[in-house]
Amino acid sequence: MSQAAVAMPAAAAAPRRKVTRGTVVIAADRCKGCELCIPACPPGVLSMSKTGNHLGYLYPELAPGCTGCTACQQVCPDFVFEVWRYQEPIVEEDTAP
Amino acid sequence: MNVIDTARPPERAASRTATFKPSLLLSEHHHLCPGCGEPVAIRLILEVIQELELTQNNICILGHGCYGSFIMQMDVDSTLCLHGRGPAVATGMKRIRPQTAIWTLQGDGDMTSEGLAEIMHAAARGENVTCFMLNNGVFGDTGGQMTASSVIGQRTKNTLEGRDAAYHGNPIKLAEIVASMDGAAYVARGSVHNAASINATRKLIRKAFQRPMEGQGLALMEILTMCPTGWFVPPGEGAEYMMESLGKVYGLGELKDVAAAASPEDAGV
Predict the structure, then answer these.
(1) Which residues of B touch A71 (CB under 8 A)?
(2) In CATH terms, is domain B38-268 a member of 3.40.50.970?
């Protein structure tokens, strides 16, 4: 462990780790931008895109941290989500402030 | 923000836990509005039909409403009937083919405004059919007019100041009325406003198919669905709006289950 890390308080010294247990396939061309999936996502890793799809609707984008819980697939009226769960989760250090 | 490529399935070893659509739906594309709750309700019904292995042994009777656009996409035998006459058509079909699961797909305008007599008499006779009512409190297909199940204070196209009990009358709570009739075997009300209630509704739909197939009587399954276009709210606020308006009047859960008293172990099905 580096000197800088030792000098920090104990709680902050432990590196925060982000675990990604699954992922989704998003059919962005079918999305009508209703945003129901955004509050439905328990880990909160979905957010709306900045640019629209070919119909002009904003569509959801996925950030690391998906748990593969299928909540987005459940609430989506336009059948946009397909959910996959990794056999081995991806563990990475969270660099976000 | 670090965005993950979600255009194609992952390259890592992974198992697919949920598909885009149920296999009984022929296409993912439909023309319903953004934020509509009806495709979710239809997906649940089709998934339950497959779980109960009724795929080759069911007939759907559709009323008139936005859900009618799914008649070309649902891979089940189906027919379209006159406004609100679903339970009457279902009665005839069930009596000709008693071993087949007959289910109607209707809206609140179709069932409570246009065809109230049909569901009441079918329930009174105790026909062994399953009736689904997708309740959004408006005539969504025609642009959001008031139905008999619109709640007091609800803003619709012809009640712009909100439904007024003195002028427009009070809403008809159809599920409560049908639950009081002796011929009804199972009456429940679900909702599709979030993932938890969608999963709970799936279990209720399962029982709504099982009770008529056991010969116990009519099952009425009411599902609260969002209609942001008909309510004049943004699509993303539809779920919240629904639980603040319809959800406060129409309580969720089972209203009647004749089998629950007879065999407690069935309650966990």
Answers:
(1) 195
(2) yes
How would CATH label the architecture of A18-93?
2-Layer Sandwich (3.30)
Contact across the interface for B198 and A30, Cβ inside 8 Å: no
- Selected for mutation to probe chain A from B3, B5, B6, B25 (highest A CB count within 10 Å) is B6
Region of residue B137 (left: phi > 0; alpha: psi -120 to 50; beta: else): left
pLDDT 10s digits, A1-17: 444 444 455 555 556 78
- The pTM of this model reads 0.90
Residue A75 contacts B, CB cutoff 8 Å = yes
Among B69, B119, B108, B263, residue whose Cα is nearest residue B189: B108
Chain B nearest-CA residue for A94:
B2
Q: What is the pLDDT of residues B172-190, one digit of tens each?
A: 999 999 999 999 999 999 9
- CB atoms inside a 10 Å sphere around CB B232: 14
